[in-house]
Structures are given as C-alpha cells and as structure tokens.
C-alpha cells in the first residue's frame, strides 16, 4: 500500500444495500451512479477525511461517536448516502441508503453502525490470524 493512501473496504451488508438500491431507486441510473461512486471511492483513497468533507455535501455526523462520515452521491431521482468509519488507514463503508427525509432518515440507521463495525473488525482479525498461522508453517 502506498504511504498516505487509504484502503477502502466495505461491510457485506453495505454491498447488499447497494444492490438493493440499484434494483429500485437507481434503476435506469446505474451507469451514472457507478461513475459517481467510483469517483467518491477515489476521493476517499487519496484524500484525508478532513479534505473529503469539504467536497459537495459530505460531512461528519454530529453527536455520533466514534466519528462517522457521511459521503453524498446525488442525481436526478436519488440522494444516496454512504456512512463510514476509519480504522487507521482503512475506510470501512458500513451503510448505504437513499436519504429521503433529510437528516431524520439518519436516526434509524445509526444503531447499525456499531454492530457492523464490530463485525468487520472481528472478520479482519480472523483473516490476519489465519494468514499469520499459515505463514508460520
């Protein structure tokens, strides 16, 4: 990994949410959204969190601990948010949803963040442990 570069990973539920959005809200808009999403991932990989929140409507969620970032992708007929947390030089995309009710739509999503981050951390630990185990033998 390049020094200063961020690795972007995602929780398995995040991928399912993206697929669900593609089949509903983003139907017919997949190409445009995919380009936007790719560009956002590139921003995340190359910019520090404090720089990303200066772009568009990206933000740090207030009153949410640990620090949680909201990355914004919008187009005609959709208003998608990615919620993420950083662990060292890794950005973990935890949740994706269509923001339809402004900030009110966040409140129902926040409780999932802690459990998803914990699941991701446990899975990462297992991967490293298995790699370490096999590298010894």
Oligomeric assembly:
single chain
Q: Mean pLDDT, as a whole number?
A: 85
Going by helix content, strand content and strand pairing, the class is: alpha+beta
Please summarize the sheet with the most strands: 5 strands, mixed
Write the layout of secondary structure elements.
Elements: E1 7-10, H1 12-23, H2 30-46, H3 49-52, E2 59-60, E3 69-75, E4 78-87, E5 90-98, H4 110-136
Parallel strand pairs: 1-5
Antiparallel strand pairs: 2-3, 3-4, 4-5
What can you see in these coordinates?
- The chain has helices spanning 12-23, 30-46, 49-52, 110-136; strands at 7-10, 59-60, 69-75, 78-87, 90-98.
- The chain has 137 residues and is an alpha+beta fold.
- A five-stranded mixed β-sheet has the order 1-5-4-3-2, sandwiched between helices.
- Strand 2 and strand 3 form a beta hairpin.
- The radius of gyration is 16 Å and the shape is globular.
- The mean pLDDT is 85.
Short structural summary:
This protein has 4 helices and 5 strands. It has helices spanning 12-23, 30-46, 49-52, 110-136; strands at 7-10, 59-60, 69-75, 78-87, 90-98.
């Amino acid at each position: 990994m390049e020094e200063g570069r961020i690795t972007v990973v995602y929780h398995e539920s995040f991928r399912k949410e993206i697929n669900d959005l593609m089949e509903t809200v983003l139907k017919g808009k997949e190409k445009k959204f995919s380009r936007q999403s790719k560009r956002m991932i590139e921003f995340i990989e190359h910019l520090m969190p404090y720089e990303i929140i200066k772009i568009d409507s990206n933000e740090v969620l207030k009153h949410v601990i640990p620090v949680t970032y909201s990355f914004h992708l919008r187009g005609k007929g959709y208003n998608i948010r990615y919620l993420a947390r950083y662990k060292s030089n890794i950005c973990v995309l935890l949740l994706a949803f269509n923001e339809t009710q402004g900030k009110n739509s966040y409140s129902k999503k926040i409780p999932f963040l802690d459990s998803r981050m914990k699941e991701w951390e446990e899975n990462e630990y297992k991967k490293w442990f298995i790699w370490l185990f096999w590298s010894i033998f």
